[in-house]
Amino acid sequence: MIKQTAGIHHITAIVGDPQENIDFYAGILGLRMVKKTVNFDDPGTYHLYFGDESGSPGSIITFFPWPAAYKGQIGSGQVGTTTYVVPEGSMEFWEGRLDKFNIDYDKTSRFGEDYMEFQDSHGLRLELVERKEGKRSEWSFGGVPSDKAVKGFGGAVLLSAKPTKTIELLENVLGLQKVGEEGDYIRFKSTSDIGNLIDVRKTVLPTGKMGVGMVHHLAWRANDSDDHKEWREHIGSYGYGVTPFKDRQYFDAIYFREDGGLLFEVATDPPGFAHDETKETMGSKLMLPPWLEEKRELMGKTLPPAVPRVLKEDKS
């Protein structure tokens, strides 16, 4: 069976205080909070989703905010850096925006592209790159106009404990194509125009430690339920232990850990984030799956208030 994923569906990370998380991704980066719900496996914790105006696959970053959790340590078996794409000609705007919020950044380059590297408020490693590919976001918030808005993921840098095995998975199982090799990195490309470039670092680092500021898992795209079933059979045929199907309300999911230590998910594009809210109201209130509705009142008392807000730096 030959299978090719379109690319990244979403990336999920562990962070600290939920309001600080919202202030960074909505207030500073200008992403839309498309869904406020809870961690279905730990309903006393938020699960926050940010993306473009409609939460398109390839633009979605999700967070489990645990204010009291231990800080993680970056290393092998983790996503090292999450890459965001911004429109061509907008990098000067983003430099000024990070300066405005006193966020330190470094300028680097690889594969002929210029990157701006920085960390979010909880230590998650991010970078911005300009690309023509990918549709522009229609969302604007705070000081970020839609013509400068983040389009979605450019890709990710993977830190594998066994780079050769991870590369075999990317090419033979997930159907990505090797498109370059430069210095310590090998680059792979998927079929979509967003969330489509994966750089694997050849140097093996000490094993990372999961915690605040670390990516928990990276999810790949499946077209629909039938495609999802094929992916489970396909991945299992290569000897990976794949979980049963899990209903995540906004997509269906399966999970497996690859030989280099990274936790991967395959998620369906449908039904999407307008599944239980309208596109216009997405993210405006706490949404719960049917099996947790009876606990809504209790959750309302235990979850701290956390909402998107225009930051004071954008009001002056």
UniProtKB/TrEMBL annotation:
Matching PROSITE patterns: VOC
InterPro entries reported in the protein's UniProt record: Extradiol_RC_dioxygenase, Glyas_Bleomycin-R_OHBP_Dase, Glyas_Fos-R_dOase_dom, VOC_core
Domain of life: Bacteria
Keyword annotations of the record: Dioxygenase, Oxidoreductase
Gene3D superfamilies, A to Z: 2,3-Dihydroxybiphenyl 1,2-Dioxygenase, domain 1
GO molecular function: dioxygenase activity
Domain VOC per the UniProt entry, residue ranges: 7-131, 152-269
PANTHER family: RING-CLEAVING DIOXYGENASE MHQE-RELATED
Protein name as it appears in the record: Ring-cleaving dioxygenase
Species name: Peribacillus muralis
